[in-house]
């Protein structure tokens, strides 16, 4: 995606997240299933496998992603774009919890910042600041 679209997605995601309470309550009934995932760490293949086995998020398929979306793996940006897009499309079915890897200091140590700067050379710093704001 062009940097302009990434920034627009981040802006919309931030606006949506600011409206939410700090604690989300997710409940189901016996006929409804929730898939809980954690620690993707930039491994896009893992996210695709989860969606392949459980289905894509939809009004009938809820997900809770328990943080640590970035760092270590090479496709953190792609994971965030996918998760933020699903969050905006299905705000009642997709829930994102911040993990310790969604922290500026951890990003410096484990690779998200460097990976983002390498991938988006022109607007990398601006996009990184916006990601930190969303986190």
UniProtKB/TrEMBL annotation:
Its cofactor is Mn(2+). Its EC number is 3.1.3.16. It is an enzyme of class 3 (hydrolase). Transmembrane segments: none annotated. Keywords: Hydrolase, Manganese, Metal-binding. It catalyses: O-phospho-L-threonyl-[protein] + H2O = L-threonyl-[protein] + phosphate. Gene3D superfamilies: 3.60.21.10. Pfam families: Metallophos. Residues 97-102 form the Serine/threonine specific protein phosphatases domain. GO terms for molecular function: Hsp90 protein binding; metal ion binding; protein serine/threonine phosphatase activity. GO terms for biological process: negative regulation of MAPK cascade. SUPFAM superfamilies: Metallo-dependent phosphatases (SSF56300). Belongs to the PPP phosphatase family. This is Serine/threonine-protein phosphatase. The gene is Ppef2.
